[in-house]
Amino acid sequence: MKVVVLCSGGMDSVAALYWARAHHTVVAVASFDYGAKHNPREIPFAREHAAALGVRHEVIALPFVNQLFASHLLQSGGEIPEGHYAADNMKQTVVPFRNAIMLSITCGFAESVGAEGLIIAAHGGDHAIYPDCRETFMQAMGDTMRLGTYAGITLLRPFIDLTKGGIARVGYGLGVPFARTWSCYKGGERHCGRCGTCVERREAFLEAGLPDPTSYQHEDPLPAAPHGSPGSPPPRSP
Amino acid sequence: MKVVVLCSGGMDSVAALYWARAHHTVVAVASFDYGAKHNPREIPFAREHAAALGVRHEVIALPFVNQLFASHLLQSGGEIPEGHYAADNMKQTVVPFRNAIMLSITCGFAESVGAEGLIIAAHGGDHAIYPDCRETFMQAMGDTMRLGTYAGITLLRPFIDLTKGGIARVGYGLGVPFARTWSCYKGGERHCGRCGTCVERREAFLEAGLPDPTSYQHEDPLPAAPHGSPGSPPPRSP
Q1: pTM, rounded to two decimals
Q2: Which of B65, B88, B101, B134 to mutate to test the interface with A (most CBs of A within 10 A)?
Q3: Are B132 and B98 in contact (CB under 8 A)?
Q4: What is the full per-residue pLDDT of chain A (238 aa) written as tens digits?
Q5: Which stretch of DSSP H or E encloses residue A20?
Q6: What's the distance, Cα to Cα, between the start and end of chain A in Å?
Q7: With a cut of 0.85, is the ipTM above it?
Q8: Structural domain boundaries in chain A
Q9: A12 touching B (Cβ < 8 Å)
Q10: CA A139 to CA A144: how far, in whole Å?
Q11: For B14, which of A25, A207, B6, B134 is 20 to 30 Å away at the CA?
Q12: Nearest CA-CA distance, residue B214 and chain A, Å
């Protein structure tokens, strides 16, 4: 299938790009600069991998998100909180309806370039605190894309039954150079090691039993996961 | 309900703004400049009406649509075709997934400013040639918005059971100055009178039995509607 891949430059979506390259025809890769603190750190990695695989790459700027939306993830927002994702203060990092916005734009772009599918690296461990990561949302979004395009564009989520550790394993199998991916929401010189995404990144390599190639600023003991074992996906209806 | 209104500056969405002002609390009005030929003509009217009603107005620029998407509606596209909308060549004016993109962004903005609903001037005569005007699409999009936001934002379509002529009548009742609205896709000095949207605008006032305040460049006899009587809505499931 001809597909467009949504790739932020993070470990999940870079692995999804390598996976897509192995299983589909990748027409283009789309990255979004929506004014998040970590966009300048992650997008160059997306560009690097698209170039390495010889695939067209588009960076789509959404300056209005930083100007009009409220979120601590944005350059216009407050401090990124530390600790495990499920903690209540992690809600501050939600960018309202971000996934729908990125998926809608990528879908319109995909229809314009003759693609039939769109790949997103959503996974089983994605967070219920983010409404636009929930399974019910993703199902409705997939319907919206299929019904709103001539091509009936399909939303593909090849990693939806994997944990983040599972993605790490798949990525290693595909030769993904994970050192050349970015997770930290703080967007500093190095991964902080303490924010929600850094904690998950560290847990993912641990769970996968693989060496973590990341250089962290802090390597404190990982906080306890609030529910279940680290990286275990929440129950999900089929 | 606190709502954000999607307003292009066209006759339907300006009427929707006046209707929303009468029935809800309008927190903000959003217009999109996506590089269409007629955006520079219509957006000033949206701004004018928001100012007249004392409501916050945001113009959101989407330059990537003109750069990356294929459509004759765009400045980067070919000539706007003439004749009735349902004609096959009108497909050339589809901007892929445009409604989903505008609705997603407006929904994220609405959640950021504490709104609970979003109003779009979709109506019963909207065109099945545009996949993202179809009822099934709009239902799925409404689900997506409700499921993907904390507020469970509701997609409101107050005009969905009206024809465009019906909207003209409602608008007249609300005192909408229709001379200060724009429809023509060609984006010239005056309404051309021949493109799909001009034909519909002329039919709407005829159907409503109201004077058309528009100055058209051409006032040829209206082309025959390909299905049913002019402005009659297609059959729709409840």
Answers
A1: 0.91
A2: B101
A3: yes
A4: 999 999 999 999 999 999 999 999 999 999 999 999 999 999 999 999 999 999 999 999 999 999 999 888 888 888 888 877 666 667 777 889 999 999 999 999 999 999 999 999 999 877 677 888 888 999 999 999 999 999 999 999 999 999 999 999 999 999 999 999 999 999 999 999 999 899 999 999 999 999 999 999 999 888 887 654 444 444 343 3
A5: helix A11-23
A6: 24
A7: yes
A8: 2-208
A9: no
A10: 9
A11: B134
A12: 32
